[in-house]
Design goal:
Blueprint: E1 10-14, H1 21-31, E2 36-38, H2 41-47, H3 68-87, E3 91-96, H4 108-115, E4 121-127, H5 130-141, H6 150-158, E5 167-170, H7 176-189, H8 195-200
Parallel strand pairs: 1-3, 1-4, 2-3, 4-5
Helix pairs in contact: 1-7, 3-4
Length: 202
C-alpha cells in the first residue's frame, strides 16, 4: 500500500435516520475539492447479507443481541476501510448513526475513534428536531399517523450521546447545500478538531 505524505480529510456525519446525513454527504462529494469517497451506514448495509440485516443500521433498543458481535466487527471493518482510504490520500465522508443502546455495552464509538488515530477527522453532529423528522417520514412514505413510533424516539434519544462534536448543524434550519458550506468553512478555518481525541479516551 502506498502511503501518501498527506492523508485525506475524514468527515463523520452522525445523526438519526431522516436527519439529512446522506444529502449532505452527496453535496460534499459533488462540491468539495479533491476525491471524496463515501463510506457509511448505507454503503455497509448494501454489502451486508440479508440474514444479517440491518447490520450497523440496527436501531437502539437491544432488539437483536445475536447480531451484536457481527455489528462490532462490521464497524471495525468499515473504519479500517476509512483509515486505508485516508492514508492513500482519498478524502472520506462517513454518514452514520452511532448509539450505545445495545443489549450490552459495545463501546463502538471509542473503538472507531482509536482506529482513526493520527488521521485528520472532523466529527459533526447532524441535528434535526423530532417534529421535522416526522414531517420527512410523512412526506416520504405518506404516513398519516401522528404518533411518534418508539424506534424514532429511541434514535432521537440515543444517537447524540455523549454529544462530543467539533461542529453541529441543524438540518431543520439549513439546507444540505448550506450545511456543506458551513462544514467547508470550518475545515478551511484551520481550527484543530479535537472531538475524536476526546472520544478515543472514553
Amino acid at each position: 500500500m502506498t502511503i501518501h505524505d498527506r492523508p485525506g480529510q475524514i468527515i463523520i456525519l452522525n445523526g438519526t435516520p431522516r436527519s439529512g446525513k446522506t444529502s449532505i454527504a452527496k453535496e460534499i462529494q459533488q462540491t468539495f475539492d479533491g476525491i471524496w469517497m463515501n463510506l457509511g451506514v448505507d454503503a455497509m448495509m448494501r454489502q451486508t447479507p440479508e440474514r444479517y440485516q440491518p447490520g450497523i443500521g440496527l436501531r437502539p433498543g437491544g432488539e437483536c443481541p445475536d447480531l451484536e458481535p457481527h455489528i462490532v466487527r462490521m464497524y471495525e471493518a468499515m473504519f479500517s476501510m476509512i483509515s486505508v482510504q485516508s492514508r492513500l490520500g482519498f478524502n472520506v465522508v462517513v454518514d452514520v448513526g452511532f448509539h450505545e443502546s445495545y443489549s450490552q455495552l459495545l463501546g463502538i464509538l471509542p473503538k472507531s475513534a482509536r482506529q482513526l488515530q493520527g488521521l485528520p477527522v472532523v466529527m459533526i453532529g447532524i441535528k434535526c428536531p423530532l417534529e421535522e423528522i416526522m414531517k420527512r417520514r410523512r412526506d416520504t412514505w405518506g404516513q398519516t399517523d401522528e404518533r411518534v413510533p418508539e424506534p424514532v424516539k429511541r434514535w432521537q434519544a440515543e444517537v447524540h450521546k455523549p454529544g462530543i462534536y467539533d461542529l453541529e448543524v441543524d438540518t431543520s434550519k439549513l439546507s444540505p447545500v448550506e450545511c456543506a458550506k458551513v462544514i467547508h468553512e470550518y475545515i478551511l478555518s484551520g481550527k484543530r478538531a479535537s472531538a475524536m481525541d476526546q472520544l478515543r479516551l472514553r
